[in-house]
Amino acid sequence: MTDPAAPPPTVWPAFRARDARALIRFLVDALGFEETAVYGEGPVVQHAQLSWPPGGGVMLGSVRDVPDDPWPAQPGSAAAYLVTDDADAVHARAVGAGADVVQQLHDTDYGGREFAVRDPEGNLWSVGTYRGEPRLS
After folding, report:
1. Does 108 fall in a domain?
2. Would residue 4 count as lying in a domain?
3. Distance CA 62, CA 90 (A)
4. For residue 124, is it within any domain?
5. pLDDT more than 90, % of the chain
6. Most CB atoms within 10 A, among 8, 13, 23, 67?
7. Rounded to an integer, what distance in angstroms lies between the CA atom of residue 12 and that of residue 69?
8. How many other C-beta atoms can be found within 10 angstroms of the C-beta atom of residue 129?
9. Which PANTHER family match (predicted)?
10. In degrees, to the nearest 5, what angle opens at C-alpha 42 toward C-alphas 36 and 48?
11. Residues 47/39, Cβ–Cβ less than 8 Å
């Protein structure tokens, strides 16, 4: 359901995982990401791009336990908010896939409907209908 007229995303949340292939499976199966690109051999993922169907996406890769890692992001320390038109459907999908729901589906005071889950690495994913406020001109 990607809008072909929308400009390509230029901001990508990115993080690391101890079991990147399992995390990719969780994000695809439980939340509905699309596996766009995965580079690596065996259990090691050098780079993965997962697209969020309404637009945007995330990038991830396997943790590198080396002292000179130039980007030492710790697995399980990321959080992201995913916008959807149907939070109830994504919630049902996540629950059906056995996701660890850390915040139940609810209506917010600012007009959104959202819930949150923890992925197998410990990252937090909030999913809701709130699209944010328009940019100031």
Report:
1. yes
2. no
3. 26
4. yes
5. 80
6. 23
7. 20
8. 17
9. BNAUNNG04460D PROTEIN-RELATED, VOC DOMAIN-CONTAINING PROTEIN
10. 25
11. yes
**Closest C-alpha to 27, from 71, 57, 56, 72:** 57
What is the C-alpha separation between 35 and 109, in angstroms, rounded?
34
State the pLDDT at residue 81. 96
For the chain, count helices (H), then strands (E): 2, 8
Question: What pairs with residue 101 in β-bridges?
Answer: 117
Q: Residue 102 belongs to what domain range? A: 14-63+75-128
Would strands 79-83 and 100-107 be described as parallel, antiparallel, or unpaired?
Answer: unpaired
Question: How many independent structural domains does the chain possess?
Answer: 1
CATH number at residue 79: 3.10.180.10
In whole angstroms, give the CA distance from residue 48 to residue 117. Answer: 21
CA nearest to 118, candidates 128, 130, 103 = 103
Q: At 82, is the pLDDT very low, low, confident or very high (cuts 50, 70, 90)?
A: very high
| Full-model pTM | 0.89
Give the pLDDT score at 2. Answer: 53
Q: List CB contacts of 87: < 8 A, sequence separation 6 or more.
A: 105, 112, 113, 114, 115, 127, 128, 129
